[in-house]
Amino acid sequence: MSATLHTKPWSTILRVLPSWRVVARHRAARMPARHSKETPSRTRSKPRSSAQYLRSPSSRGHRMEREAKELSLDLSDFNRSSHDFKRFVTELVNSTERNAVQFEECLVSVFLPDLNTFKKPVPHDGVSELFEWLRDSGKVRRIKSLNIPDNTTVLMSDGHVSECILERFEIERFVWRKLDINLDILISSPHKSVFTEITLYSTGNFSVLYHWASKDGIGSLPGLRSVTIEIMALNTKNQSQKAQERHRQTVDVYRRRLEEMLMERKREKEEEQGRAGDTKFNFSYKVNTDGKWDFPTPLYVTHQPDEIEQLELIQKLQACHHFLMNMKDKKGDPRHIRNFDKLREWDMKEGEDNSHLIKVAIIDNGAKFRQRIRDCIERGISYVKADTGSADRILPWWMVSDPHGTQMTSLVSAVNPWCRLYIARVGKGRRDILPEDAVQAVKWAMEQKVDIISISWVTKSMEPELRDVIQEAAKNTLIFCSTADRGTGSGPAYPADYNGTVRISATDKYGSLMPASENGSHAVNIPVPGEDIPAFGPSYMGDGIEVGTVSGSSVATALAAGIASLSLLMLMVFNDEDKDALRKMDLYTNKKMGSLLSAAINPSPQSDPLFPVAAKVKELPDRWNLATIMARPEMKNT
Fold first, then answer.
1. pLDDT single digits (tens) 83-136
2. Rg (CA), the chain
C-alpha cells in the first residue's frame, strides 16, 4: 500500500476540494466548504462479529440502523502525538449523529489512549467528555475492564477520575497507570462492590502499601477477587548501583510483610464468602518488585507542502454528477430519472432488498466515520487486534490511527456518491496486513454481495489461500488491486498478480506512467491518474491530513474502483438494464471492465470520451448507450 501525502494551506485546498465533492442527497445544492462534525504489532485473529457491523444513515436523516452494537472501545489508535484526541472527542460529543455509534449497556473493555504520547499542557483533556458521552449518549452503564494509561508527569487527579468515571459506571477490572493512588477513590465509589480485579502501581512507599493491604484498603472491597501490585525498580540510568541494591533490599522486606497482610485478607475474604454461601470463592494476589516505569516515545508525522492542480478527469466527473442530479429539473428522459432514483435509494428499511444498489468493499486499514463519507457507508467490520492486553481487544473499523483507508474511502465516495460502501479493516498501518485477515475480509465482502472490491495495498509473497479466495470472488465481483510503487524490477505484486483482478498503475498529472508504478505481466493493467489527487482524512490528525492530496498506485486503485462503480450505475441508468444483464455481457469480468475503464479514462483519439467536458455533458445518455459502448474499438478487442 503506497500513498505519498502532500499538504498545503487551507486557502488553496478549499478552492479545489469543494468542487470535487458533490452532495449525494436528494438535492442538487452543493454543501458549503466547512468543517463537518464527526461521529465518532498485530496478532492473528478473527473478529468478534457481534461488535463490528454498522449500517448507514437513511436520506431522511443520519439515523443509524445497527445489526449489532459495539462491545468494546479501544482508543489505542491515538497512541501518537500527531493525533488530536481532544478534537476527536469534541466532534464526537457535539455531533448531531447521536446514534451513529451504538454500544451495549455493558462493555467488555474500554482502553484509553496512552496519554504519555500527548504533548499538551493538559494531556487528559477530553477524557471526562468522552465518559460523559458514553454514559449519556452511549447508554453504557457497566465496564468489565477499564485501562487508563495516564500521563506520567501530568496526571489526572483522584477527584477527576472519581467524578467522571468511577461514580458513573460499574467497573469490574480497574487499571490506572498512576503511582501510589489513594484506594479511597474505589472504596468511596457507589459501585465498590462491583470491583473484582485491580492493578496498583507503587514507588515502594510502605505507608501506601500498608493501607492498600489493610482491612481499610482492599478489605473494604467486598467483591474483589484479584489484586496485582507492581512496585517500581529504580531507574538504572539515574541511580548508582549501591542505591539500587539498597532499594531492592528494602522493597524485598516490604514484599514479605505485604504478602503476609494479603494472605490475611485472602483468609478473611474466603471465610466471609463461604459464610455467604460461595464456597468456591478464591482471592488471589501478586506482588512484583521489579516494575518498569518506561513509556513509548511520541511519533511525529511531517508533511511536505505542495501545489494542487485540479485534474481534467475530476472536472468531467463533476459535470457528470451535476447532470445526473439535475435530470429531473431539466426534464430529462423519465426512464433515466426513474432508474437513477432507484439506484440512489437510501431510504430503505431493515431487511429490505438492496441488491440493486452499487456496492463497493474497501479492504484497507479502516475508515474514519465522518460527515464527508458517512452517507455512503453501509457496513463495516474489523479484523485487527490491539498490540497488547486481552485477546478480545479488537480495534474499531471506524476509528483509525493511519489516514490511508479513510482517504481511499473518500476517493471512492467522491467519484460515486451513490454507491454503498462496505469497510473491512485489516491493518493498523499500511504494511501490517495479515494474509488470513485479508482472506476473511474478502469472504465477508462476498457475503455482502458487493459488486466491486478495492484493495490498495501490496504484498510480495504469494499466499495460496488468499489467491484462491480472490479468484473465487472474481467470478462475480470486480476486484481492483494496486501495483507496487517500487519500480519495475521489484518482482510480483500480490494480490494484483492473482488471476481475475483488475491491475491498476498510477499516472502523473500529464498522463505518463509514474516511475514508481510497475508494468505488470499477469493481469489487466490500466493506467489511472494517481498524483496529487484531492482526498479527505481524519480531522483529528490535523489540517494537512483532513484536507490534502495523495499520490501513488493505491490512490489510482481507489479512483478506478470509484469510476467502475459509477460506470455500472451509468449503464443501468441509461439502458434499463440490471446487474444480471451486465454480467451476461461480461462487464463484471476484469478484461471487459478493464477495456471500459480504459475507454472512460484514456479514450482513443478515434472515440468520444465516455465522460465529456461540461459543455457536452448532455451527450451522456448517448455515449453510455450499451450498443454504442460495445461497438467501441477498445471493447471489441476483449
1. 788 888 888 887 655 456 788 999 999 999 888 887 777 777 889 999 999 999
2. 28
Pairing of strands 359-364, 304-305: unpaired
Q: Which of 540, 539, 544 is nearest to 8 (CA)?
A: 544
Instruction: Count up the domains in the chain and report the number.
Output: 2
Q: Are residues 250 and 321 in the same domain?
A: no
H, E, C per residue of 82-150: CCCHHHHHHHHHHCCCCCCCCECCEECEEECCCHHHCCCCCCCCCHHHHHHHHHHCCCCCEEEEEEECC
For the chain, how are helix, strand and coil distributed in percent, rounded to 5? 35, 15, 45
- Residue 339, C-alpha cell as written in the block: 432508474
CB 150 within 8 A of CB 176: yes
What secondary structure, in 3-state letters, does 34-69 show?
Answer: CCCCCCCCCCCCCCCHHHCCCCCECCCCCCECCCCC
Mean pLDDT value across the chain? 80
Same domain? For 231 and 380 the reply is no
In a domain, 29, yes or no: no
Asked if residue 58 belongs to a domain, the reply is: no
Chosen domain end from 239, 270, 291: 291
Contact yes or no for 229/288 (Cβ under 8 A):
yes
Is 250 found in the same domain as 324? no
Angstrom distance (rounded) from CA 172 to CA 226:
11
> What residues have CB less than 8 Å from 106, skipping those under 6 apart?
140, 141, 142, 143, 144
Q: Give mean pLDDT, residues 323-348.
A: 87
From edge to edge, which strands make up the β-sheet containing 547-551? 304-305, 4-7, 547-551, 533-536
What H or E segment, with its residue span, contains residue 480?
strand 478-482
pLDDT for 612-630, tens place per residue?
888 889 999 999 999 999 9
DSSP string of 520-557?
A: -SSSEEEEEE-SSEEEE--GGG-HHHHEEEEESHHHHH
**How far are the Cα atoms of 25, 195, 525, 533, 615 from residue 528, in angstroms, in the given order?**
28, 57, 10, 11, 24
Considering the domain boundaries, does residue 30 fall inside one? no
Under a CB-based contact definition with an 8 Å cutoff, are residues 75 and 115 in contact?
no
- Maximum alpha-carbon separation in the chain: 92
Residues 343 and 249 in one domain: no
Is the separation of the CB atoms in 35 and 10 below 8 Å? no
88 and 204 belong to one structural domain: yes
Read off the pLDDT band of 22 (50, 70, 90): very low
CA distance 103 to 177: 25
Domain that holds residue 629: 304-636
The helix (H) or strand (E) run that includes residue 408 is helix 404-415
Contact 480, 504 (CB under 8 A): yes
Residues 6+ apart with CB under 8 A from 429: 365, 401, 402, 404
489 and 514 Cβ atoms separated by less than 8 Å:
no
* pTM of the model as a whole: 0.66
